[in-house]
Amino acid sequence: MSNHTNLFPNFTDETSQLFLNFNDIVDNLFTKFPKAEFYVAGIGAITNILHLIVISQKAMMMSSTNVILIGIGIHDLMLMLSILSPFVNRPRIGGCDPPPSLIRVHLELLSYAISDSSRRTSSWLGVSLAFVRFAVLKNARKLRPTNLGKLRFGWIIVFIMSFISILFAAAYRFRFKLIQFETWHPPPSCEFSENFTRPEYGYLQRAIFYDYHELLLKLSFLIDGILAKFVPCFILILLGFLLVKELKHAQGSRKMMRSKKESASKNRTTKIVICMTVSYLVAEFPLGLIMILQFVLAETPGFLLVLSKMQLLFNLINTCNATIHCFICFSLSVHYRNTVKRMLYCYKKRVVVLVCSSFAASSDKDTDSKVARYLKSCGVITSLKTTKCVKKSDEVDKELKAFAKSKDKDLSKIKTSCKETVDCVKELKCKPLEEDHKETLDLCGRALFQDEFKECSKKLQALKKGGDKDAAKCLEDFKSETKKTTKDTCTFLKGSKDCIKAHIKKECGDDKLAGWEKFAQDSFKENECEKAIGTKWN
Hints:
Layout: H1 2-7, H2 13-32, H3 36-55, H4 64-84, H5 102-141, H6 151-174, E1 176-184, E2 198-205, H7 211-257, H8 260-296, H9 301-323, H10 325-332, H11 334-359, H12 365-378, H13 383-405, H14 415-428, H15 431-436, H16 438-452, H17 454-465, H18 469-481, H19 486-494, H20 499-508, H21 510-523, H22 526-533
Antiparallel strand pairs: 1-2
Helix pairs in contact: 2-9, 3-4, 3-9, 4-5, 4-6, 5-6, 5-7, 5-8, 7-8, 8-9, 8-10, 12-13, 13-14, 14-16, 16-21, 17-18, 19-22, 20-21
Transmembrane segments: 38-55, 67-88, 123-141, 153-174, 226-247, 268-292, 312-334
GO molecular function: G protein-coupled peptide receptor activity
Keywords: Membrane, Transmembrane, Transmembrane helix
């Protein structure tokens, strides 16, 4: 009863208990997940570093919008680092670890000031981002020139917002003073020398903030809540509606003003800004409301206790918001995704060149020069695979030349070598490599088809032996026609009365028919058939 009265004067016990229960729920949440913000900040630090690497590329530096996004990314990263730094080598409370030194306490307090400053700057840069995008769209629609889209203007905005926020951070730091509140004595179980002690430091708000009925404390809550949270949120709501309106105008008039491709790019940029605006509203508005309530309820200790716990909860949400900005850009910006792809391409290409140079010792000069040419022409392909494929293709070339001079014309005998070559060339998808070995690939294709067609050939022979007169005549005609001149053969193969196609399709299916047609086309050479019958081969 007494505790309720002290914490919530002028409130009933039931109401006081309700607020205390809510405080316990939030407390339990952070007790079960004590390092929730630490893990989120760790992920956020990684994503923001990657985001800054991408967005600071020369290809991305196109307008003030991109510069403001860089500013947001920098302050988001500073926020993550300021959250992570107090966790580094933090002493365990109640254990044998000595309490933090005076310098460490100073640094922790500085990290809280940086965190406060970064959150504030990031939200105002979000407002600036929305405003600049709206102004650029509006001026473009009315065909009015503007300097707002220039890179220099973006840097000016980032500098001004950062400077103003630093002043607020300095005021935040001034609120607290460091004191030695106790002397630490290690537990007997710890291995310290006798009479070992360490001062324990902490910080509290300066007495001036409690004078005149906490006037300065209330004003600090009010000013910070209004300028850092409430005003940005209301401006963001207004700019959000205006951006949606301008987006509709842009979609309606894009045919008259610019190409669809350029318009789509502009619209995607606007959608990124709208999504960033919504994310800031979700993260910042509750914090602004909490700060205003802290001003209104400054004389009620219980409410300050509950609101401080709620502030921790919404700070976690704010940290999550600072983590997802790169995902918003990646999901909505084609230009952003293309920049990421180009960066990965360049990285892989550098790796490939290193692998290629290290592998060169085990390959001959002719192979090296070919591999280097294919790598240069085809970009990101694995050097080791390329070298092996070039060697294999050259070996099969020699094998096919020897095969051509022999009397044995059964291509299926070289199918194993051919299959390895065809598979590796297809996997690499390198056009110069395919062109250099076109004849080899054609012959190998026929060799592999001959082997695949054996079962189908048996089915056709079975038709002939089974008494199917039409099939027997068709096969005999085909056999005799292919022994005639090129012109007769080509005319027969191209003719609409080619009965063998119908039998292949019926007995073996469309795949084998398509393979047979290609085999016939390659075997009798398309250019010779065109010269012979005067029409293009289909």
